[in-house]
Amino acid sequence: MLIEFRVTNFRSFKDEQKFSLVRGTGDELLASNSFTANDANQMPLLRSAAIYGPNASGKSNFLKALRAMKKIVMESALKGQRGDRLSVEPYRLSRATKDKPSEFEATFIAEGIRYQYGFSVTSQRVEDEWLFAFPKKRQQVWFQRAWNSETDSYEWDIGNQLIGKKQVWQTSTRSNALFLSTAVQLNSEQLKPVFDWFRKTLRLAQVGGWDSGYTADLCENEESKSRVMEFLRAADIAIDDISIERTPFNPADHLPNDMPDPLKEMIAEELKDKQLARIQTIHLDEDDNPVIFDMKKDESDGTQKLFGFAGPWLDALENGYVLFIDELHGNLHPELVRFLVGLFNNSETNPNNAQLVFSTHETSILSQKCFRRDQIWFCEKSTETGSQLYSLFDIRGVIKDRSNLALAYLSGRYGALPFVRDLNLQ
């Protein structure tokens, strides 16, 4: 369960920006759209949030910040070598920030314990790293490290509550790797829930969602396929059955002839000895005879996108994952967007309190019938301060249950709209 995420000095974010899934005051949609966390503090949290804003406002960069944090957690100790550069991009439109570290911090609940974990990094090294745990409401400092440029070394504070081979983990941690990731690779069981939250629970999709591979894998099991089919039927997708055909990868059959040879060789090496899935949909004709269609060639972009969503969506709802999706609305009818969001904002379809955060331009769901005010966020960008994130809950004058949010947003009342000028071609 995600509680809060903070980012500073990353891409279009100059100053610290805070995104929160903590429920605010107000009893609107209380039972459906919010829940009580299973940690010691019994924190009230939200099941979903939508982020609105014009193109190039920073919505995608917000997701890229989470992706950058997850990548560094996943790869800095396992894949990196001494001297390798870290994948961060500071805010480059200010002399004060372009050479400063980017900072990320996530507060979340894993296995019933609240954690506050973060780090600041440049492309050369980790500048700071910290982890606080709250197993019994009170804060415990599990570890902190900070780079001292005068001594060219780290200052460490490793708390007594962290057990294990702490000295080994400390001396094994490279300057361009995280202590968290290094300790887990060296068998720290205590830190594994923190690492696994990033590895398993936090799920990030690119623009357009997911490809169809994961859902196709589910369809090879009859029980899982029945769940996928029920998902598609509930979304009013008229498919009677799905068939998955596996074929060995063959460059001559699966790669275009005009592809450059170096690229062709690289892809061929990556897919060597792998099986490719051909997804076929089955429709019944007027005489109830099955007719086979090819998913990629014959089905609409919206159907393909929804099929790709089916597996991750069902997986998240079953396991309580946290999904972040950029531009959820693309190629989908507004009612399908409402359907997808509604599966999260429902205690019956979301019994394990999965969370969904998505950016969108779809204003038909910008309504207090769909969302609480604290579930609606805006992102806008200025030349002085970079991208800014703020919640509708913090804007004065929004009347609970009565304001027409979509109309007010499109009229400019909440900001985060494109400023379109007249085009002069003379």
From TrEMBL:
Report the coiled-coil segments: none
ATPase AAA-type core domain spans which residues?
Answer: 49-367
Q: Which InterPro entries does the record cross-reference, listed alphabetically?
A: ATPase_AAA_core, P-loop_NTPase
Give GO terms: molecular function aspect only: ATP binding; ATP hydrolysis activity
Cross-referenced Pfam families: AAA_21 (PF13304)
Q: Which domain of life is it from?
A: Bacteria
Keywords for this protein: ATP-binding, Nucleotide-binding
Instruction: Identify this protein by name.
Output: ATP-binding protein
